[in-house]
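Have a close read of this protein, sequence plus structure tokens, and explain what the tokens say about the fold. Thanks in advance:
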Amino acid sequence: MIKVGDQLPDVTLQEYSEVEGNGCSIGPNPVKVRDAAKGKTIALFGLPGAFTPTCSAKHVPGYVEKYDDLKKAGVDEIWCVSVNDAFVMGAWARDQKTGTKVRMLGDGSADFAKATGLSLDLGGRGMGTRLNRCSMLVKDGKVTTLNVEGPGKFEVSDAGTMLAQAKG
């Protein structure tokens, strides 16, 4: 499993854009994780799935709500990663009204989940391989804090915990 001090994996996620700009075309755009993280402080949180109850009711809204505070604490970008395709992540971004506050990144083939060792087998629930609920503060591509939730928990990967760690 990825740990504090490790570099983010060299994988590509997908991000859906509804408008062209900043070199992004409409539709899914590749995001090379290591390149996108260079020189930035990122509050990254991972979830099992878009539109799932805890993820939609608590996890994403918490990061949207704490956006300004996280920025003041030195966070350049907030990333939400989930094992879903870019189209689903784009629809979820609209539903959650993330705007430009949270980058909603799809890990459609679970490459990020597997490369970090944070994959979760939810095949018994018909969901296949997913990303375990987690969060990490990343500086210049290196993990500086890591919070991994226990099964069915939402206690340490929330925006409030991340804010305290970013301030610390």
User: Anything to note?
Assistant: The longest helix spans residues 53-65. The CA atoms of residues 133 and 149 lie 6 Å apart. The radius of gyration is 14 Å. The chain has one domain: 12-167.
